[in-house]
Sequence to fold (436 residues):
Amino acid sequence: MLKEFITSALIIDDKQSDIEGLMNYLNEQDIWAKHFTPEQLDKIIGPINNRKLIFLDLFLDEGDKLEGNISKIRKYFTNVLGLNYGSYGIILWSKDPEKSKEFTSKIFNTGGKYTRPLFVVSLDKVKYLKSNDYSTLLIDLEKELLNDVSASFFIEWNKAVKKGSDNTISTLYNLFDSNEKKTKHLESVLFSLACNFTGIPESNLKDYDLQKDLVKSLMDTLQFEVSNSYINTPQLFAKEPDKLIYNETPEERNIVYSKLNSLLLLDFQNLFQDSPIPGNIYEITDSESALYIKDVVYKKKIEDIDIHLDFKDLAKRRICIEITPPCDFAQNKKQTFSRIVGGIQMDFNKEILRGSNSPFKTENYYTFLYPVKIEGYENPQMIIFDFYRFQTVKEDELKNPAKFKIIMKAKDKLFADLIQKLSAHTARLGIAILNK
Fold:
């Protein structure tokens, strides 16, 4: 499991004599390794390149207490690893379970200053030094990782992504039977893939970051390759059923789920005010717009949501989504108008969204997008779209930030679900019948 993951290692130790046998072993395993003493780390300016495994002496300063050494290690991690170090694990040279536990607890409290490790495993350095035999090191590490199912999964996932990425590149290069053809035509193929992903016409490409669409267009291929390359972690979901229950307070669960929902359903990158494309979500900055939601039917009365006691303290902003069918957009049928649906973003409140008096319980609303984490808002949010605020507006209006300001984009699954439910709503059949 580990051999493909650990391609490089970093050794942090104050004694050169303690690391020579380890260095020889890692070289024999074709693992590139580098050693730093605390004095050398003090001289490093800025983060270093990623190393998949860090061998760490817990007592770098033998004259200091445990708390002082952990504080120094966290300082080194802040300076040497930083926030973009990538995935890695730590082998902590310690045979004292209590000290290891304290170290692990404090090292995971990063304070937002460095990347968290995938795992921390404690091993006894003296055992390897006395025998000068490191041949069982990776085996010992794998045994310890059997107790950390999540880390084992992400190690395998990391390996699969790397392999899947390599296979995707090979697939594209193998489209051509000569280097000359590859050099001549590959960029054109990549351009077609990028344009095809969003369906954006070439006439709308000015100032649009097409390379991000190219990256997204390759994700389906990468997903296929990753799925084929991934090796199952036997213990995952099978060892302890109690671990499959997220037993936290509703508030804590909402915080975590809001971050995951945003990751899965919303895109906050590659946003362009001048390119109204399907899935774009805008803040309605013109309070006089017909799309701007001011009141709702609440407890059988029409209530102003900026004044009513149940609503007024909820952070909120009026929004809309560009809902033009992607085929119209891709085939240049859209012309100068965009189809949009108005809505509202508010602090998540389960009672207002789902309670017996909720104004949003009817099929006139899309109410499935909650909780979500939106930058600039302290609390988890809910996003609601009103199917009766389904209109067309001129593209020039959507491009005008004084009326509509782009804030995010719906990812494919969310967009598909929204357009399907809108279609079902607008296509409802009815019949008038006498029954009295």
User: Anything to note?
Assistant: The CA atoms of residues 201 and 332 lie 7 Å apart.
